[in-house]
Amino acid sequence: MKDDQVDSIHNPVNQLKMMKQNLENFIMSPVTTTVLNESKLPASQSLYEQHVLKGVGMILIPVKVAYVYLLTPCLEEIRKRMKESPLDYLLAIKVAQNTISPKLMQRCIKERIPAVFVEITDLDELKRLPWSWIRQFSFPYNPIFIPIFRQETANDKGKTIWNKIMTDAKLSHSKESLIEGAPISVPTLKKIGLYPIKGYLRNNGELSYNLFYSSHDTSDFNGISEAEYDKLVVTVLNGEVVRAGSTLSFSDKKGSEIKIRIPGFLI
After folding, report:
1. Does residue 66 contact residue 42 with C-beta atoms inside 8 Å?
2. Tens of pLDDT along 113-144?
């Protein structure tokens, strides 16, 4: 580790003339990313602490946009609310299904919005949207579409229709809704374009990780079962220790907005 970055994860360390730390009793895992509802912003210090206690180091914020012309002002408002955030964040948009249009996709490209959360309320109307045109105007940025199933669409039929529409239109999408507070999976992080920026420890990557006691079986997300997050003992964000045991300290740490150059670059 060097200058708040992972210098190397492959080189043998026996002959390195620098400080070494024995971590054989721990499992190192990347910090996770989760969804945070904009209604909770500006968030309290305790809310950020709750996220860090679960190993979260990055938040994805779906910003509600009622009309296309309001997209930029809505984003700016959330940026103001996030000025005091100690965690890095990424802005997405959340729209009603009838708001999706070629014009909206053009604005998403201009604002570098890598994810569009779609509130699905009417499956027949969803089918009638001009998806071929939407795909054409999404190119070359190609943001991911993420469903939010409302009312009677929150069933297997709704999910089946959504996935068929997305697959037929050849659009990047999530098959399931994202759950607020739950870690976003690596395949979805890849589609958004956050991976390997986040969720991956790599050479010359940012120094953000969790340390867990290794006295448990590993499984699920990043090798750590959700039930084992109470065994998280250390969290480092961008080279700064923000959790050590039961002690949490953000000091003067300020998070920053992450910009995605190309969503789905590694897919």
Report:
1. no
2. 999 999 999 999 999 999 999 999 999 999 99
The answer to whether 211 and 234 have CB atoms below 8 angstroms apart is yes
**Which pairs from 163-167 meet CB under 8 Å and 24+ separation?**
165/126, 165/127, 165/131
pTM of the complete model beyond 0.85: yes
Residue 64, Cα to own-chain centre: how many angstroms?
17
Closest to 46 in 3D by CA, of 256, 248, 194: 248
Q: Among residues 222, 221, 246, 219, which one has the least CA distance to residue 233? A: 246
The predicted pLDDT at position 14 comes to 60
Q: Distance (Å, rounded) from C-alpha 180 to C-alpha 159? A: 19
Enter the tokens of residue 4.
């708040």
Nearest to 248 by CA among 28, 43, 45: 45
Percent of the chain whose predicted confidence (pLDDT) is above 90: 65
Structural domains of the chain sorted by starting position, each given as residue range(s) with its CATH number in brackets: 26-248 (3.20.20)
CA atoms within 13 A on the CB side of 92: 27
From residue 65, alpha-carbon distances to 62, 74, 116, 119 in Å are: 9, 7, 10, 11
Integer Cα distance of 137 and 152 in angstroms: 30
- CA atoms of 43 and 110, how far apart (whole Å): 28
124-132 long-range contacts, Cβ below 8 Å, gap at least 24? 125/97, 125/98, 126/97, 126/161, 126/162, 126/165, 127/161, 127/165, 129/97, 129/98, 129/100, 130/101, 130/102, 131/165, 131/168, 131/169, 131/171, 132/169
- Both tokens of 143, joined, read 């943001």
Q: Return d(Cα 209, Cα 61) in angstroms, integer.
A: 21
CA of residue 232 relative to chain centroid, distance: 20
Nearest Cα residue to 95 out of 143, 43, 147:
147
